[in-house]
Description:
The structure holds two protein chains of two kinds.
Chain A: H1 3-14, H2 20-31, H3 43-52, H4 69-138
Helix pairs in contact in A: 1-2, 2-3
Chain B: H1 13-20, H2 24-35, H3 38-55, H4 65-86, H5 103-110, H6 112-122, H7 125-136, H8 141-148, H9 152-176
Helix pairs in contact in B: 2-3, 2-4, 2-7, 3-4, 6-9, 7-9, 8-9
Amino acid sequence: MALDKIEILLEKYFEATTTVAEEEQLRDYFSQDSVAPHLEQYTPMFTYFSKAKDERFTKQVPLKPRVSYHKWISIAAVAVMAFGIYFGNDYREQREAEFAYQETKKALSLLAQNLERGTEKVAYLNEFEQAKQKIYNNN
Amino acid sequence: MVHTTTEQPIMTQSEFLNVVMPFKDKLYRLSKRLLISSEEAEDATQEVLMKLWSKNSDITNYKNVEAFAMTMTKNFCLDRLKSKQSSNLKLVHSNYEDGNTSLQKQMEARDSISWVEKIMEELPEQQKLVLQLRDVEEYDFKEIADLLEMQPTAVRVALSRARKTVREKLMQKHSYGIG
């Protein structure tokens, strides 16, 4: 490329009025060996920019498979709920059975008590019977 | 419980990597320009990519994922610098200059290409950013202006200043040897 054109581009470059394409031309010019001696001072700038562009990010990014995160959360929630309902039901049934058992026990003991009281009363009746027999016998 | 699926189609890991692959180096180079330490820059890049990944379905909505990621990186690094500054900590970097310069390092310092890198380190952050985005990444003024939330004319002024400063300091180094 003509030297005077490069000089013009350089001037524009420092005023930041060059286009990306023109800057590409400058980088190309300074990357070759035959740079005009009075322009050599600019070489490090342009070669540095080209070199800087080659730097790579080499580290691995640990991406957690968060894709189906929500899906799994809802599946887990449903599972927990199902378990809860299932075992909760069992538990409730057990509680109910126990309650019924206690109630029955109470009822039965009440019955037993009353029965006992009944027998006591019957004992009086027995007394009466005996007395009655005595009277009959005496007659 | 009803699981509503009104979200965007979810990207798989490899799809995501394909989207991110073309510009992940740019994110890293931008982080390194600001944070200087390559380790810090790697961490920052990783952090930004992971944030992008966690947004996952959202990023398909952005017209320009690259610009979005670059903005995220810029903000992340500036925040990082600010928090380090306020806690009075300097970013530690081991990638160059550890005080006792070995022979090899002295040789490197003589290499005038690495002068440019060091000169750029001394620039104000905004000029660093503009120079990086333009002369390394070859963004146009509109893109840079959007990314840095600046007026295109302000971008031009900052770029011109940055380039002239680099030139000036490079001349000084040339005339005095190692500065």
